[in-house]
């Protein structure tokens, strides 16, 4: 017997039946694209093409088109990389870690969050690839292939190589996890399909799912195994990204707290991006009964907690820089807060540490507008965090004679725009052709956490 | 539901008392051996220390700064340098006692604090599975006032031996032992501020604990859902205070022992160690109570989940351990690597260093990997006892090298004192547990816990 305590909020409102769930979610896949969607898609493709110009020029002329100089050798490229990878954490966290913690509310948001994760990781991979300058050769630089050049191997000591392994493994597992979850839902669409073409396409995508008890049992087992695999992977990805910096001897980069603090920051920005996207999807697709205010409130609480963890880490870094007595560390942090990039530092502090504290007020964390605005503010803050870490630590290094400033060119900005174009093109395609909510899992929690309890109250 | 109450029987008290006596005897013997060993070695002692210092300097050759003596055991030179009056005055065996008092004190204060943290986190996350055993970690909090007294007393008597930074000469520019790095930390590391922080931490922790306990007991009498939401609010407040003070207290009480050294991860490292310790203790006590006929409501699914927690957070501890170690190892900055060189270059500490990893990672990881081992009380008992011992060694390794330099020992003294502390802690916690109902019967999640099922 499964019991649900009366103090728990209802997860699916509106007294939905199983049929309602299928209908509410499938109908968007089945309907013709509406003009709003067309407009959004056109905008995304526009960004993709405009940004694509900057990308093409960079590939043709080289990364000299960027604003980098001999002192600041990493700036927008790696900032964007870390930012996108961070965003790419929420999906797998929601589906794997929240699954292990038995947080049933994840069922309404996991599908879209996982899709977002995969698209964000694709955007992230773009940057290390381009920053090699000649991406067509990067196969030799990233992949440890047996070769005929004697001892010429990739540099196994380099965290950048660990990144390659961590992210490609994470991407593969996330993709498989996401796809396995989609299979029963594809079968539902297949079964409802009225024309032959969609029946054939969704039939193929569903791998001939038959819905037998044995099939469901295998599905559950695979999901649990993948959740177990994905959990350490979620932690490993941003841990290793943090090691790109923390293994160095650059003041402001070398600090032992980086691994868990980067992971917390990644969850923070990932949840914010999920909220930004879900608030829009919810509105456009009328999914208010599935993604309730309760869901939004819980996600806001996670943002508040991870934001505070990040805040504690900032203060720890600041304190330890002073406490260590190392003059370079002390200067690095003084320069962050009061140097020429003070505005980036204080934008970061305001957006990441102060703004999420507003979620302590119930009124704010249950307000859709406040949530939407804050979710964007958080991701602005997280972009600045990476910019602050990367650029302010590099631009004034050990040699004052080579101190320099970084200013981005339109090509830096253009490639960032390109990544947005790519991300939204992929996301809008997903939202149109795939079921945005995991119907099978929502149905699984329907009995224990929906109308029935609501009626009893 | 019939009210269940834990009875702290005279038989149990007798067993604990006998254990305490055994502990005291072992401690006495250990102290006797340590002090006689001290006397017989007195002649060669200074010589030995001197060698240690020279060897250390050799290793650090590349990195002799003007500011500081960066020999591995920074206190060693001060000992020889004429501050005999206040520094070298205490014989080695007495220092060893202070070091051990501090290790045990840190360990059990952490257990008490993280017990309260466990309760708070269950309310904040609206956990259902744990509702039936919430009173066990709650009883840990009763140790907090004793923890404050002990912390103050040990600091008052042994502070100079444990904390190098308490010596005034380090801050006097005219003194040959002036240490500009430590002087730079004076704004934070000074006795009045240190003691004030300590008192504030304990008082707030204790008051929050009492508040949580009071509301939880009122819920037993009156029922209703309002207590649950009230408790959620108080718990959130506790967690906010805890989030800051668990780090700052770790800096104060543990990090500052190795006064020159620093690591931003350290606060979370201590937290991870405390947290696994508390989870293991909660599991062990739950299992033992269950075996003695209590807590019928706690089913195998709940034990399974407790086992999962110990498993998962053992991995978390290792993650934090590895991140801190690897980043320092890889960057190879002498100011930071010195901490691990001290522990790895000593024949004595290097054993503890690896024992720490075996007991706290490999053992729980491998034994708790299969599903069934988390559902059988015998495995739960074995693993949690190993983990509890393992994290004691973790604290041993954090404290001893900084206090005892290369002269740290392990023997009857350590074992005896740990037993005495353990018995005292159990006495306080179990007395607390016997004063109120064992199961929070009006907890709104209690039915969920009762029917909790784990695949």
Automatic annotation (TrEMBL), chain A:
Keyword Transmembrane helix tagged: yes
Domain of life: Bacteria
Stored InterPro entries: NrfD-like (IPR005614)
Designated name of the protein: Prokaryotic molybdopterin-containing oxidoreductase family, membrane subunit
Localization in the cell: Cell membrane
Main location: membrane
Protein family membership: Belongs to the NrfD family.
Cited Pfam families: NrfD
Keywords: Cell membrane, Membrane, Transmembrane, Transmembrane helix
A GO CC term attached to the entry: plasma membrane
Residue ranges of the TM segments: 37-60, 80-101, 113-131, 160-182, 222-241, 261-280, 301-323, 343-361, 368-394, 414-434
Topology class, membrane: Multi-pass membrane protein
From TrEMBL, chain B:
The UniProt record lists the keyword Transmembrane helix: yes
Ranges annotated as spanning the membrane: 15-34, 101-124, 136-157, 194-212, 233-254, 266-289, 309-329, 349-369, 378-398, 410-433
Record keywords: Membrane, Transmembrane, Transmembrane helix
Keyword Plastid belongs to the record: no
Superkingdom classification of source: Bacteria
Protein name (database record): Quinol:cytochrome c oxidoreductase quinone-binding subunit 2
């Amino acid at each position: 017997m499964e019991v649900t305590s009366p103090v728990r909020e209802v997860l699916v409102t509106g007294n939905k039946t199983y049929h309602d769930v299928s209908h509410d979610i499938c109908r968007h896949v089945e309907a013709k694209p509406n003009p709003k969607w067309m407009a959004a898609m056109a905008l995304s493709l526009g960004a993709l093409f405009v940004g694509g110009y900057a990308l093409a020029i960079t590939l043709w002329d080289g990364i000299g088109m960027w604003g980098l100089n001999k002192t600041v050798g990493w700036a927008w490229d790696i900032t964007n990389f870390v930012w996108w990878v961070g965003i790419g954490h929420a999906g797998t966290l929601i589906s794997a870690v929240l699954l292990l913690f038995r947080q049933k509310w994840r069922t309404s948001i996991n599908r879209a969050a996982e899709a977002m994760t995969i698209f964000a990781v694709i955007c992230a991979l773009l940057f290390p690839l381009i920053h090699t300058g000649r991406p067509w050769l990067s196969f030799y630089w990233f992949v440890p292939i047996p070769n005929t050049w004697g001892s010429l191997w990739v540099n196994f000591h380099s965290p950048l190589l660990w990144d390659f392994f961590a992210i490609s493994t994470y991407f593969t597992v996330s993709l498989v996890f996401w796809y396995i979850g989609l299979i029963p839902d594809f079968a539902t669409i297949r079964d409802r399909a009225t024309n032959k073409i969609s029946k054939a396409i969704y039939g193929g995508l569903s791998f001939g799912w038959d819905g037998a008890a044995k099939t469901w049992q295998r599905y559950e087992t695979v999901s649990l195994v993948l959740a177990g695999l994905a959990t350490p992977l979620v932690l490993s990805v941003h841990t290793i990204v943090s090691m790109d910096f923390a293994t160095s001897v650059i003041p402001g980069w070398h600090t032992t707290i980086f691994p868990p603090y980067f992971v917390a920051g990644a969850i923070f920005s990932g949840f914010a991006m999920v909220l930004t996207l879900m608030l829009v999807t919810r509105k456009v697709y009328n999914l208010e009964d599935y993604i309730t205010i309760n869901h939004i409130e819980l996600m806001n609480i996670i943002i508040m907690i991870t934001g505070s963890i990040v805040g504690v880490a900032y203060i720890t870094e600041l304190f330890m820089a002073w406490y260590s007595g190392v003059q370079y560390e002390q200067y690095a942090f003084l320069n962050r807060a009061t140097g020429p990039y003070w505005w980036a530092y204080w934008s970061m502090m305001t957006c990441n540490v102060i703004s999420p504290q507003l979620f302590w007020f119930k009124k704010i964390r249950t307000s859709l507008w406040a949530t939407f605005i804050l979710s964007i503010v958080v991701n602005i803050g997280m972009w600045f965090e990476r910019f602050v870490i990367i650029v302010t630590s590099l631009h004034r290094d050990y040699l004052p004679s080579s101190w320099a400033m970084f200013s981005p060119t339109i090509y830096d900005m253009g490639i960032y725009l390109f990544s947005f174009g790519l991300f939204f093109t992929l996301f809008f395609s997903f939202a149109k052709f795939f079921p945005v909510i995991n119907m099978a899992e929502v149905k699984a929690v329907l009995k224990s956490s929906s109308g029935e309890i609501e009626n009893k109250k | 539901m019939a009210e269940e109450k834990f009875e702290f029987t005279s038989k149990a008290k007798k067993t604990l008392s006998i254990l305490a006596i055994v502990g005291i005897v072992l401690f006495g013997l250990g102290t006797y051996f340590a002090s006689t060993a001290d006397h017989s070695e007195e002649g060669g002692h200074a010589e030995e220390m001197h060698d240690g210092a020279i060897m250390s300097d050799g290793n650090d050759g590349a990195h002799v700064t003007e500011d500081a003596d960066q020999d591995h055991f920074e206190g060693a030179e001060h000992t020889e340098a004429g501050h005999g009056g206040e520094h070298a005055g205490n014989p080695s065996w007495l220092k060893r006692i202070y070091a051990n008092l501090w290790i045990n004190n840190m360990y059990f204060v952490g257990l008490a604090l993280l017990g309260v943290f466990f309760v708070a986190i269950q309310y904040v996350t609206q956990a259902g599975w744990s509702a039936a055993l919430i009173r066990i970690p709650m009883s840990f909090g009763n140790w907090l006032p004793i923890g404050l007294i002990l912390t103050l007393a040990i600091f008052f008597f042994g502070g100079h031996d444990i904390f190098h930074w308490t010596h005034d000469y380090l801050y006097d520019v005219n003194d040959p032992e002036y240490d500009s790095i430590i002087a730079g930390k004076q704004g934070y590391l000074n006795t009045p501020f240190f003691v004030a922080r300590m008192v504030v931490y304990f008082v707030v922790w204790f008051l929050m604990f009492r508040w949580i306990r009071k509301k939880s007991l009122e819920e037993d009498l009156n029922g209703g859902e309002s207590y649950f939401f009230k408790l959620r609010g108080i718990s959130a407040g506790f967690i906010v205070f805890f989030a800051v003070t668990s780090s700052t207290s770790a800096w104060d009480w543990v990090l500052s022992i190795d006064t020159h050294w620093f690591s931003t991860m350290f606060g979370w490292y201590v937290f991870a160690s405390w947290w696994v310790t508390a989870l293991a203790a909660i599991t062990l006590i739950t299992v033992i109570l269950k075996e003695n006929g209590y807590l019928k409501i706690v089913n195998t699914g709940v034990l399974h989940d407790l086992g999962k927690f110990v498993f998962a957070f053992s991995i978390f501890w290792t993650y934090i351990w590895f991140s801190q170690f690897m980043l320092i190892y890889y960057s190879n900055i002498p100011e930071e690597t010195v901490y691990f060189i001290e522990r790895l270059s000593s024949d004595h500490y290097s054993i503890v260093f690896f024992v720490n990893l075996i007991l706290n990672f490999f053992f729980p990881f491998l034994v708790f990997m299969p599903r069934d081992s988390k559902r059988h009380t015998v495995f739960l008992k074995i693993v949690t006892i190993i983990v509890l011992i393992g994290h004691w060694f973790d604290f041993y390794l954090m404290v001893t090298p900084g206090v005892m330099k290369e002269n740290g020992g392990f023997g009857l003294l350590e074992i005896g004192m740990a037993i005495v502390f353990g018995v005292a802690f159990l006495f306080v916690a179990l007395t607390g547990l016997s004063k109120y109902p064992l199961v929070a019967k009006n907890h709104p999640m209690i039915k969920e816990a009762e029917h909790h099922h784990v695949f």
